[in-house]
């Protein structure tokens, strides 16, 4: 199987680039004849992946953060259809957050994760697809492998992606710091939320997360019962909460205990439509990537990707 490894040297605050030679050696030790390429700018991972699949590569390995995984997965599809039937996706996390790996309980360093690919086995997992509004008002469609969300989480992602100093202390610190700062000035958003044909309400919310995986925000266990191959999203709705209470209960999100709180609801569904009410912009994110706003439609794609980890 021809294999391409796509590495984001800027991930992890540039630490991946400093380890580039070791990463390449580890990839070749684990996978044999693998072609290694580094991204230079946003969008490169999608382009490199799509070109490789069109040219007969059967396996793509992403090395970077959750954003690198997101870009790479988007390269597997064109106009909603797979570019190469049977192509496989693998990854080794080397970024600020590293959330998707937590769903599969993958621990250890980047080099240890790469070594584990030598004996990895394939499985089919679900993907999310979101059609959203850009800040310029146009409509775009992208896929996501882990979690998409909107509200306070969208605000936090925008802050983290612009941050420089906080990221040097690691993803969990950066997300917790900016979550706390955002909560201090938080005002709830009013949205209309529709889930399949079973739920249609106007709600006041701080955050709504549409989950394929279990973790986001640098280790927050937002959807403790989510399963990546059950054909359903776990939709976690955190209702309007006072800033003081939100900060006090923030640690609950890291353990998953927040889902027992009376202002949290968890639904399951295949299609979610979210529309803003009141004229205020509602920011969203997918796998830690921003530049999204409501209205947006989120759809589950059952067994859409072959994951070898």
Descriptive overview:
With 309 residues, the chain is α+β, with helices and mostly antiparallel strands. It has 2 domains: 3-120, Rossmann fold (3-Layer(aba) Sandwich); 128-303, Tumour Suppressor Smad4 (Sandwich), CATH 2.60.200.40. Strands 9-11-10-14-16-15 form a 6-stranded antiparallel β-barrel. Strands 4-5 form a two-stranded antiparallel ribbon. It is globular and about 55 Å long. Mean pLDDT is 89; it is low at 165-169. The longest helix has 14 residues, at 171-184. The protein contains 10 helices and 16 strands. It has helices at residues 15-18, 20-31, 44-54, 66-74, 99-103, 110-116, 152-162, 171-184, 243-248, 250-255, and strands at residues 3-7, 34-38, 59-64, 77-78, 81-82, 88-93, 122-133, 139-144, 147-151, 189-195, 199-211, 233-239, 264-269, 271-276, 283-286, 289-308. 28% of the residues lie in helices and 36% in strands. It starts with a strand and ends with a strand.
């Amino acid at each position: 199987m021809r294999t391409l490894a796509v590495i984001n040297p800027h991930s992890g605050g540039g630490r991946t680039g400093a380890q580039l030679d070791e990463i390449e050696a580890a990839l070749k030790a684990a996978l044999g004849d693998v072609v290694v390429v580094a991204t230079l700018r946003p969008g490169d991972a999608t382009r490199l992946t799509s070109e490789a699949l069109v040219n007969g590569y059967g396996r793509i390995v992403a090395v970077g953060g959750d954003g690198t995984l997101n870009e790479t997965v988007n390269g597997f599809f064109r106009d909603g259809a797979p570019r190469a039937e049977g192509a496989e996706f693998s990854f080794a996390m080397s970024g600020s957050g590293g959330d998707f790996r937590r769903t599969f309980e993958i621990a250890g360093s980047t080099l240890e994760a790469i070594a584990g690919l030598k004996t990895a086995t394939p499985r089919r997992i679900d993907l999310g697809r979101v059609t959203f509004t850009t800040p310029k008002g146009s409509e775009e469609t992208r896929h996501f492998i882990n979690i998409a969300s909107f509200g306070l989480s969208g605000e936090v992602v925008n802050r983290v992606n612009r941050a420089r100093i906080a990221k040097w202390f690691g993803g969990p610190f950066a997300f917790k710091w900016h979550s706390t700062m955002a909560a201090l000035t938080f005002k709830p958003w009013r949205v209309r939320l529709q889930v399949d044909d079973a739920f249609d309400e106007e709600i006041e919310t701080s955050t709504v997360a549409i989950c394929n995986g279990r973790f986001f925000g640098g280790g927050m266990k937002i959807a403790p019962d989510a399963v990546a191959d059950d054909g359903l999203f776990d939709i976690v709705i955190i209702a309007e909460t006072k800033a003081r209470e939100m900060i006090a209960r923030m640690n609950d999100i890291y353990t998953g205990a927040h889902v027992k709180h009376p202002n949290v609801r968890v639904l399951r569904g295949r299609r979610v439509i979210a529309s803003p009410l009141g004229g205020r912009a509602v920011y969203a994110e997918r796998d830690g990537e921003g530049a999204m706003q409501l209205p947006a439609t989120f759809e589950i794609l059952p067994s859409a990707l072959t994951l070898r980890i």
